Amino acid sequence: MVYVFLVLGFVLLIKGADFFVDGSSSAAKLLKIPTIIIGLTVVAFGTSMPEASVSVTAALKGQNGLAVSNVLGSNIFNLLIVLGFSSVIRPLKASPTVLKKEFPFSILITAVLALLCTGLSFGGLFDGTGSFHLDRIDGLALLVLFLVFLVSQVRGALKARTDESGEDYETMSPLKSVLLVLVGLAGIILGGDLVVDSACEIALQYGLSQSFIGLTIVAMGTSLPELVTSMVAAQKGENDLALGNVVGSNIFNILLILGMSAAISPITVDGEAIFDMLLLIVMSGIAYVFTRSKGVLSKKEGFVFLLMYAIYFVYIYLR
C-alpha cells in the first residue's frame, strides 16, 4: 500500500505543478511578461513546488536528511537529465542574459551553500571528523539571497515588459488562472506529504538511507515537472524557457527551499552531501563551459550529460 501512496503522491505533485504552471503562466502573459522571465521565475517556481513541498514537509517532521538530498538530487537531475534530454531533442541556444547572470549565479550559490555547511572546515570532510550543518541563520542568509534574486528578476521583467505577444502560453481568464493556481498548490502540498511519508517508510523497509532515497526516487519524482516542461519547450523551440526553467529551478531549490527548510529546523549535513555539492559545482561548471563556448548546447553534449548522470547514479548506489 505504501507504493500506491508514493505513486499517488507523485501524481498529485506533477498534476498540481502542471495546474500551477498553467495558471501562473497565463497570469504572467496577461501582465505581458516575456518568456525568459516567465521561465526564470513563474515556471521555475511552479516546477520547484514539488521539491519545496517535500523538503519543507521533511523539515517540519525533523527528517532533514531527506530535505538536503532531495534538493541536491533534483539539481543534479535537472542539470544532467533535463538539459541532456532537452538538448538531444533540439540543440538549446542559450540566452545571453542567462549566460551572463543567472547561470554563473546558480554556480556561485552552490559554492556559498557548501561554505555555509562546512564553515570552511574542509579538512574534516576528508578525514571524517567534520561536523556540518545548516542552521537557522544560514537559512535566513539563503532567503535574503533569494529575495535579492527575485527583486532582480522582477526589475528585469518590468524593464522588459512589452505589448508584443510572441509567447505560446494559453491566455485564460483571470478567474480561471487563479483557480488553477489554488488547485495546483493544494495538489502539491498533499502530494508532498504523501511522498515524504511513503519514501521514508520504504527506506526503513529496505534499510536504505534517507539520503539515498532523496537523491534518487524522490529527486527524480519531484523533478518530473522540470523534465516535462523543458522537453516540451525544447520541442516547441522555446529555448529560453527550457534553459531558464532549469537554471531558475536550481536557484529556487537552493535559496528558497533549503533556506526555508533550515529556517524551520536546523539541518545536519553529512559528508556525502558535501561531496554532492562539490560535484554539483563541477557539473554546473562543465555545463556552463559547454553552453558558453558556442552559445548552444548541442545534441552530442546532451548525450555527454546523460552519460555523466549514469556514472553519478552508479557512484551513489555503490558508496
Automatic annotation (TrEMBL):
Its main location: membrane. It is a multi-pass membrane protein. This is Calcium/sodium antiporter. Keywords: Membrane, Transmembrane, Transmembrane helix. Signal peptide: none annotated. GO terms for cellular component: plasma membrane. It comes from the Bacteria. GO terms for biological process: intracellular calcium ion homeostasis. It holds the Pfam family Na_Ca_ex. The keyword Lipoprotein does not apply. Residues 3-153, 177-317 form the Sodium/calcium exchanger membrane region domain. The chain crosses the membrane at residues 66-85, 105-127, 139-158, 178-196, 241-261, 273-290, 302-318. Gene3D superfamilies: NCX, central ion-binding region. It comes from Schaedlerella arabinosiphila. It is found in: Membrane.
